[in-house]
Specification:
This protein is mainly beta. The protein has a single domain (about 10-60), classed as SH3 type barrels. The protein contains one helix and five strands. The chain starts with 9 loop residues before the first strand and ends with a strand. The relative contact order is 0.32.
Length: about 60
């Protein structure tokens, strides 16, 4: 899963968000990854290592 995503990519996470979706858009990359929920618009920042563990698949690169 390493580096198969970039800014604007849509990813599916293993666990769903409390708003009942698991699709997120990558907003920022670097040491930390910033993602935005595609349903409610909430932003979350995760360390790159943790993000790589929690991502299930990349829908759109």
């Amino acid at each position: 899963m390493n580096n198969s995503y970039q800014v604007g990519s849509i990813v599916v996470m293993k666990k769903e968000h409390p708003c009942r979706t698991n699709e997120w858009t990558v907003v920022r990359t670097g040491a930390d990854i910033k993602i935005k929920c595609n349903n409610c618009g909430r932003f979350v920042m995760l360390p790159r290592i943790e993000f790589n563990k929690k991502v299930k698949k990349v829908i759109k690169v």
